[in-house]
Amino acid sequence: MAYTVTLIPGDGIGPEVTGATQQVLAAAGAPIEWEVVHAGQRAFEETGVPVPDAVLASIRKNRIGLKGPLGTPKGKGFRSANVTIRQELLLYTGLRPVRTLPGIDTPYQDVDLVVLRENTEDLYAGIEHEVLPGQVISLKVSTRAAGERIAKWAFEYMRYRGRRTITCCAKPALSPLADGAFVDAFGKIGADYPFIQQQLMDVDNLSMALALDPTRFDVLLLQNLYGDIISDLCAGLVGGLGVVPGANVGDRIAVFEAVHGTAPDIQGKGIANPLAVLSSAVMMLEFIGEHGIAQRIDQAIWGVLEEGKHLTGDLGGSEGTAGFTQALIDKLPRAKRGAR
Ligand code: NAI
To answer: Whole-angstrom Cα distance, residue 138 to residue 214?
Structure first.
């Protein structure tokens, strides 16, 4: 059976890294038919809107999407295309696994943590108002329902994945109502999961603790803005934005994407690292149950990184996107007969 997956190639380096990902998946025999639609800057230039209805309709139909990074049109009144997709499709969990990879020189080894970010509220609600000239208020939205929804998702994810300790990070002393609601929701849902270790930590304290020793953390649960910042910080701990995958997940739909942006500084140079989008696609294959193919691609990634001969510039090598992609394809283990 072939799966139809919505593909948004994205802006900037997006088409380069999603194209490389398609090549590796095809070489691995992934049974995927891509339905290509455009969002972001390119869609805006073509249609006048950053997220055309056809994009949302395609993802709603297929339930699974793979997305390159999107630029947001400059100017007043445009909500980020990413935020629109997450909010319109109720992709309320931002899932970002962060693990040490072989052959990448970083200060820490054995990092293996997961950042879970509430994706629909917080300052991303985009409610800003100029009260008086030069005086602006920007509202942080936090509902108990959204807090409980992602806490439930987080605990179920941990149970399913065998993860042991969850750390919920906010700043309730500063914001007793907004952050307090999130922390309260965590405590309420957590009461049903006494077999999972649970702790609270202020997000500023978390930043320092991650810089000192990220290996002591397992799963981190955060609101939207804190989660955005901390997931980039965590990417930096294991080799940068070019290597960290991600997914936006709701109850019925999941859209997989890299953490990085459109990288305009290297667009079109053929040097972008496709690993983050490829690893997101590996997560997607796991999600749809294609474990064998996902593992083979993961082994190829591991092999190329360990060998260290074909690394892109961000990882300290001098290989381009095409050479790196070919090295991955060459390293794919053969499929066992009858297996996918
Ligand atoms: P960025 O992630 O695009 O770039 C930051 C730095 O990381 C740059 O030096 C870039 O060259 C490097 N980099 C990023 N991805 C790389 C890769 N795959 N291989 C090698 N190097 C890589 O962040 P920036 O510059 O803040 O944002 C640029 C644009 O991307 C903005 O318009 C922003 O709104 C958008 N953006 C989109 C995201 C998404 O669609 N999920 C996420 C973050 C930013």
So the answer is: 32
